[in-house]
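Fold description:
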Amino acid sequence: MTSLYRNTSSVVYILFCLFFITSSGSFIRQFTDDFNTIQQQKGKDGPIPNLEEAKYLRKDNKISSLDYKVSASNIVKALRDDPPSSYSLKIESFNSLLRTYVLRFESRPFAAGGYNWRLVVYPSGNWWDTSSGYLSLYVAIDDSTPIAAHQEVHADLRFYIFNNNERKYLTIQDMDVWKFSASKKIWGFPQVLSTDVFKDLRNGYLYDGDQCEFGVDVTIASHYQKSESFSVTESFYNPTFTWTIRGFSTLLKESYQSDVFSIGGRSWYIHVFPNGRGEGKAMSMYLNINWDVKFKPFEKIYARAKLRVLNQRNLNNVERQLTNWYIGPGYGSGDSEIISLADLRDSSKGFVVNDMLKVQVQLEAISSTMYFPS
């Protein structure tokens, strides 16, 4: 029995030793792989901090936009005179910053759109975002304004780099909004400018020895609270109204109005000045929207119509095209000289027959606008 116990103990001890050796080898390989990876980055992209700092940045401060591929067609770069409106970061010793082996530089928090943000600069590029050799710019929501688990903050971002040669700012932005959340608190551009271009003093981004300036505009893209829907109707059950003016030669008043008629859900009337307005050489004719039509604040009604003076002998009618925006009740639009008084008084012309004049309007299009909330 004692011999069996000793043999069993020996087997257990041997298995334990094999497990320990195997686990240690795996740990050593993992440590060596991490170290070799960092050494490769060091040889390729310049010096980096010690191994412990690199592992900390890689695990806890990894910044990557790889899950959001910015389409080149959505990126807009331009020069502008105006400085950034949200935050500006000026670095007076850029190359000295590089010599300190700083992977990234964060600004203090600044407020924009009800949240606190930080501007993040990678002077030599963000290795974790496959942008080594480029200047990288990001914006992060600061921890002082936490985001709920299912909350999204939609923001428009515009980044700035001052160009001293042009005395203007190079700006870069994506036309799509950036969606910040509890799991994605930082967004930006990993490849803004190559470090060779940026550090070349002839290009103007570094100036006065070793100075540079970055900036950002953060605009919260809130959803609209009010809206409107505009439409135009071009088909009506009965689009024409004809007005017969009797005793035309005996009219003494300056102007006359037809009965009110309804077309396209609106009330209208024709307004005629028999002797014209002003010099009195021609008759004036207008299409007015009726006084009882209710206009919403700032509403305009578009109308397209034809105004006609009918020829009662089947000759050519006088016709004018009307296109106008009606801005309030009683508003009118038309032609101040639609037909000369000489043609009206000449009985051979056929416009006034048996002392009757016929005028007509044909509505071709009327707009309607719905406002939300009403």
Remarks:
- Residues 60-220 form a domain with the Apoptosis, Tumor Necrosis Factor Receptor Associated Protein 2; Chain A fold (CATH 2.60.210.10).
- The radius of gyration is 40 Å.
